[in-house]
Write a structure and sequence with these properties.
There is one protein chain. This protein has a domain of 75 residues: Serine Threonine Protein Phosphatase 5, Tetratricopeptide repeat, CATH 1.25.40. The longest helix is centred in the middle third of the chain and has 17 residues. α4 packs antiparallel against α5 and α4 packs parallel to α6. The protein is mainly alpha-helical and 245 residues long. The chain has 14 helices and no strands.
């Protein structure tokens, strides 16, 4: 009798969370990285219903990261209309801001992230806001913020990269190198780390090591959220080789 009750409860939970189960499968396929079928599984999850906030947020973020800007925008917009808790609203805003950044609405994205950083600071938020400051051209604000972010978490690769990049841009090459070298010890797998260090090395006369870093950048993971493309790195590498070798 007990096992029948337990089986009934299990079946009820499976039916209740059927959308989340399909979403978990989608996430698993995405992480493996050898198939685009994760999108189909998210579609199945939507049809089944019962997707949690976490599943919906992850779906929208992965669509954005994959370059589906318009679709991601719609997913984030729909999710914002749900009856969310205050912490969920802030987490949504942190990811939603990236859409506005990629749409070229940098000031809106920064405003959204500034609110989240004030109310619910986290390493990902500091990382996102830090590179938006840095790449928006306001280097004084970027340096001040990225120092603060580093104090918050001095082992996160993105935060370290943001600080190194900012020091490079303000002309403090020794400081930039210090943080890039610390970053390299963490074996980052995003192109900005090696591209930024490579450019710094080239500009300070260490051509061979700089070219090595640039080549490493080409073998990292690129996404729609990367701030540099493969073609940009290849063009710079070709320029360096043409002028110096």
């Amino acid at each position: 009798m007990v096992w029948k009750i337990l089986l009934g409860v299990l079946l009820f939970l499976v039916i209740l969370k059927r959308g989340d189960i399909a979403a978990i499968i989608a996430r698993f396929i995405y992480v493996r990285g050898n198939s685009d079928s994760w999108k189909k599984w998210y579609n199945i999850a939507e049809m089944l219903g019962g997707m949690s906030f976490e599943s919906k947020l992850t779906q929208a973020y992965l669509l954005l990261k994959d370059g589906n800007l318009d679709t991601a925008y719609k997913k984030f917009a729909l999710l914002s209309m749900d009856n969310l808790k205050s912490d969920q609203k802030l987490r949504l805003k942190a990811s939603y801001a990236l859409v506005f950044w990629k749409r070229g609405e940098i000031s809106t994205a920064i405003e959204m992230l500034e609110e989240v950083a004030e109310k619910a600071p986290s390493t990902p938020v500091y990382g996102s806001l830090g590179y938006m400051y840095a790449y928006s051209g306001n280097l004084s604000a970027a340096l001040e913020f990225n120092k603060k972010a580093y104090d918050y978490n001095n082992t996160d690769p993105i935060i370290i990269d943001n600080l190194a990049y900012t020091y490079h841009k303000v002309g403090e090459y020794n400081k930039a190198r210090e943080y890039y070298e610390k970053l390299m010890k963490l074996s980052p797998n995003f192109p900005e780390a090696y591209y930024g260090f490579g450019r710094l090395l080239v500009e300070t006369g260490e051509l061979e090591k700089g070219v090595e870093m640039l080549k490493k950048a080409l073998n990292t993971q690129f996404s729609f959220l990367s701030t540099v493309t493969k073609s940009e790195i290849e063009a710079y590498l070709q320029e360096v080789n043409k002028d110096n070798f």
